Amino acid sequence: MAGTITAIRVQKKNPRRANLYLDGKFVLGLSIDLVQDWGLRREMALSDADLEALRRAEQQQRAYGDALRLLNYRSRSVAEVRKRLRDRGYEAEQIEAVVARLQELHLLDDRAFSRQWVENRQLGSPRGRLGLASELRQKGVASEVIAGVLDEATAGEDEAVQALALARGRVRALAGLERPAFFRRLQSFLARRGFAADVVLQVVRQVWEEQAGRD
Q1: Distance between CA atoms of 207 and 201, rounded to whole angstroms?
Q2: Which terminus of the chain has a lower count of CB atoms within 10 Å, N or C?
Q3: Number of domains forming the structure of the chain
């Protein structure tokens, strides 16, 4: 048998946490929420099973808090959250419970994450469909989610128009290059941004002709 609660003292440095004492000895730090949820009070007897359950509940709450802090910093995929919690030593069962809770609260959603990722990319650093798909796969997003989100994002849009705008913005940096070097450098630039090979070649040819006509 674990013992009897002799004190529950709020921590000086963190008033949202308390120290639990059994038979005059410190045994566990807990969040105030857990103290209240469990109805812990002085002279309450706790068994070994109770103490283990409290430890697990505290660990679960820590995992949830860590996940929230990750999401407050920036939006993340389910796979990213799982990995970060694994890296911090949480058990698979605790991680899945946290993921399920966050999904129920709509705080973790791979489709919403992917939409936001694509939106931000296209505003700040445009990418072609292949590039966006590759980035989302690296984030652990499922292929069917990626395909659906990219279909939504590119509906009615011509990828060549986007690639052309990027290429035209790059022309000044390539001024004075001969045709082979111009093609090689601009093709490489667009390919790194995930545009399809046929789109890249079409755009590079058009931009070369445009700048050649100005010379």
Answers
A1: 10
A2: C
A3: 4
Which H or E element spans position 25?
Answer: strand 25-31
Query: CA torsion, points 120, 123, 128, 134, in degrees to nearest 10?
Result: -20
pLDDT, residue 174, reads 84
Q: Is residue 51 part of a domain?
A: no
Tell me, yes or no, whether 1 and 41 share the same domain. Answer: yes
Whether pTM > 0.90 for this model: the answer is no
Q: Which domain holds residue 74?
A: 61-107
Q: What is the DSSP letter of 31?
A: E
pLDDT in tens, 76-135: 999 999 999 999 999 999 999 999 999 999 999 999 999 999 988 887 778 888 899 999
Indicate whether 141 and 168 sit together in one domain: no
Domain assignment present for residue 24? The answer is yes
3-state secondary structure of 90: coil
Sequence letter at residue 25: K
